[in-house]
Amino acid sequence: MEFLYKAKDIKGNDYTGNIQSPDAHSAVAIIRKKGLILISLNSKSGHANKFLEHFFNRINFTELVIVTRQLATMVSSGLVLSEAIDILEEQQTNKTLKRALADISQDVKGGLTLAQALSKYPDIFPRLYVNLVKSGEASGKLDLVLLQMADGLEKDREFKAKVKGAMIYPGVVLTMMVVVIFIMMIFVIPKLTNLYSQSTIELPLPTKILIGTSNLFTRFWWMSIIFGVGISVAVNRWNQTPQGNLFFGKLLLKIPIVGKIITSVTLTNFNRTFGLLASAGIPILDSIGIVTDLTDNPVFKNALKEAYKGVEKGLPLSSLLTVNNFPKIISQMVRVGEETGKVDEIFFKLASYFESESDHLIKNLTVAIEPIVLIILGVGVAFLVISIILPIYKLTTSF
């Protein structure tokens, strides 16, 4: 591959040029061997190759958890940080992560802190991750912070897996229902329409409704696509505005069972993240800012922004968590933590509580969906049977 680079020497002179190398990591190594300080490096292979490389070498959450656990283990065992990163880099199969770790190792050897080196890769190491590492380095307890962070990430991974696993069944059922309806309307009903059109009997109302719906599907399918795309684009654009985003956020929280699950999942992540930040000694204002960035639902995000303003004025966090969708148990327990100096333990306990509540709600959702799906299927099948059988009955009785 050919790369374009910009660099400087120790005296500050600028250098630009082309370099042939199998990958970006090797190109960086060649430039550094020349005694140059790299400013930028771009591949001449084009955006398509970059996109494909990014697509096939994406770093998933599990890889980040494993790297954190391994780094924590090696650092706590007394291994030099740069050597630990080199070992991680050597055993990586993901090219993107491998190159990132190689560059991080070079930066650490060059005098940067680990947090500074990690901050160059925000797509891999989020703000929470970098801030926790920064606090660990500042306090001289990097090994303890890494171990605690690895535990927190693993719990977060297990929790997300539970939520996704519980959503598989409803998703599969709904998808199959849509597919069956599509097949019936496009392929089955038109054949019945041809059969009934040859007779002179008056078709029952259910049959007319079914045939009319099928005709809409077969004749104006393109309008359905345009309408669906138009609605999706309009909703997406409105959701990107503050008003629209807040509207959909409130709407999701009002959906029976689903709203409670979203609330419990959000509060689980909120408390676990706060616990990690508090245990690492990160200031409360910085913690609120980080948690706000990581919170998806705009209702809770706005509540945290208001809490930030209140804490900035000198108010205790516990007194600011009594508004909006934060349950009273959070403000009461956080107040106890503030009084006893054990805020991190309180947040971890709250995270465990809301995690168990989420598990319970997800199980209830799965149980509730089954009879609802059966009722919908039963009504749909009954309507189809009536719509198809009634004309046949009229045909047989007309002779």
Q: Any overview of this molecule?
A:
This protein is 76% helix and 5% strand. It has helices spanning 24-33, 47-56, 61-76, 81-90, 95-109, 114-118, 127-139, 142-197, 205-219, 221-239, 242-254, 258-279, 284-294, 298-312, 317-320, 328-340, 343-397, and strands spanning 2-8, 14-20, 37-43. A 3-stranded antiparallel β-sheet has the order 2-1-3, with helices on one face.
What's this, in brief?
This protein has three domains: 2-56, Ubiquitin-like (UB roll), CATH 3.10.20; 61-154, Type II secretion system (T2SS), domain F (Receptor-associated Protein, Up-down Bundle), CATH 1.20.81; 164-399, Up-down Bundle (Receptor-associated Protein), CATH 1.20.81. The chain is 76% helix and 5% strand. The chain contains 17 helices and three strands.
Q: How would the blueprint of this fold be written?
A:
Elements (H helix, E strand, L loop, with lengths): L1 E7 L5 E7 L3 H10 L3 E7 L3 H10 L4 H16 L4 H10 L4 H15 L4 H5 L8 H13 L2 H56 L7 H15 L1 H19 L2 H13 L3 H22 L4 H11 L3 H15 L4 H4 L7 H13 L2 H55 L2
Antiparallel strand pairs: 1-2, 1-3
Helix pairs in contact: 3-4, 3-8, 4-5, 7-8, 8-9, 8-12, 8-17, 9-17, 10-11, 11-12, 12-13, 12-17, 13-14, 16-17
CATH architecture of the largest domain: Up-down Bundle
- Total separate domains: 3
Q: What is the level 1 CATH name of the largest domain?
A: Mainly Alpha
The CATH fourth-level homologous superfamily of the largest domain: Type II secretion system (T2SS), domain F
Helical coverage, percent range: over 70%
The run of helices and strands is EEHEHHHHHHHHHHHHHHHH
Please report the number of helical segments. 17
Strand runs, count: 3
Summarize model confidence as the mean pLDDT: 81
Shape: extended
Distance between the termini: 81 Å
Characterize the quaternary organization of these chains. single chain
Major sheet strand order: 2-1-3
> Could you describe the largest sheet, including whether it forms a barrel?
3 strands, antiparallel
Radius of gyration from the alpha-carbon trace, in angstroms: 29 Å
Share of residues in strands: 5-15%
